Amino acid sequence: MHLHISANPKELGKAAGSAAAQLITQAIAKNGFANIILATGTSQFETLRQLVSEPGIDWSKVTMFHLDEYIGLPITAKASFRKYLKERFIEKVRALKAAHLINGEDDAVPECERLGKLIIQHPIDVALVGIGENGHLAFNDPPADFETEQPYIIVELDEPCRKQQLGEGWFNSLEDVPKQAISMSIKQILKSKHIICSVPDSRKAEAVKNSLEQPVSNLYPASILQSHANCTFFLDQASAAHLSPGTLSTLHK
């Protein structure tokens, strides 16, 4: 695991997006294709902006999987992650080989099974993820399920998670925030060959500290990334503010 610390969110996004582009290009050069996972939310704005602007990626050889989505939210809703990915990624690049979006409007159980069968056939080269204010990884809120082998699962969203979505401006009231979602599981995320974790903003500083400095625990779901050999946290000065000097000297490159 490594740290890359930038001055601000824009510079963080440039670094993370460029790193992702390089890994995608390398996978295509080696295998003839690349399989990727994309996250959503405000933490990914600048990273995705940089990724779609990167030259030289043959997007027709890229298959994209979606990290998580609310249950019961129509694609027309402001907070729909399908809407987010279509507007901020899919419509910005040349036609992908495939884009496997999560449909939270359909029956969630068969949707999890459908996506699970697909992702098993597509080993992931690069996963772009973030972490929540409560330390969640995807929508795996604490205490997260570290054991399930299912690639996609139905999860309950805790109040801190739902308040974060409200605070970021995606919903008009806490009552409007769905209480359930479909999320990629922890074990499935960890199967990715490379993980790029983009985490800007001071409101994530405590979650970043817990993820990097607490023992690995499902009470700090993103702490599991400590166990991944090829994970890089891309932080800005604000999100890195609570890290100890020892962590900075050990992991910062």
Layout: helices, strands, pairs:
Layout: E1 2-6, H1 9-31, E2 34-38, H2 45-53, E3 62-66, E4 68-70, H3 81-88, E5 98-100, H4 108-120, E6 126-129, E7 152-156, H5 159-167, E8 180-184, H6 186-190, E9 194-199, H7 205-213, E10 231-236, H8 245-251
Parallel strand pairs: 1-10, 2-3, 2-6, 3-5, 6-9, 9-10
Antiparallel strand pairs: 4-8, 7-8
Q: Describe it for me?
A:
- With 253 residues, the chain is α/β, with parallel strands linked by helices.
- It has one domain: Rossmann fold (3-Layer(aba) Sandwich), CATH 3.40.50.1360.
- Helix content is 33%, strand content 19%.
- The chain contains 8 helices and 10 strands.
- It has a 7-stranded parallel β-sheet with strand order 1-10-9-6-2-3-5, sandwiched between helices. A 3-stranded antiparallel β-sheet has the order 4-8-7.
- Strand 2, helix 2 and strand 3 form a beta-alpha-beta unit.
- The termini are close together.
- The model has no long low-confidence stretch (mean pLDDT 96).
Summarize the main sheet: 7 strands, parallel
Q: Domain count, please report it.
A: 1
Report the portion of residues in β strands. Answer: 15-25%
Number of helices: 8
Mean pLDDT: 96
- CATH C-level class is Alpha Beta
Inertia-based shape: globular
Give, in spatial order, the strands making up the sheet with the most strands. Answer: 1-10-9-6-2-3-5
Helical content (DSSP H or I, runs of 4+)? 25-40%
H-E string: EHEHEEHEHEEHEHEHEH
Overall number of strands: 10
Short recap of the structure:
With 253 residues, the chain is of the alpha/beta class. The chain has helices at residues 9-31, 45-53, 81-88, 108-120, 159-167, 186-190, 205-213, 245-251, and strands spanning 2-6, 34-38, 62-66, 68-70, 98-100, 126-129, 152-156, 180-184, 194-199, 231-236.
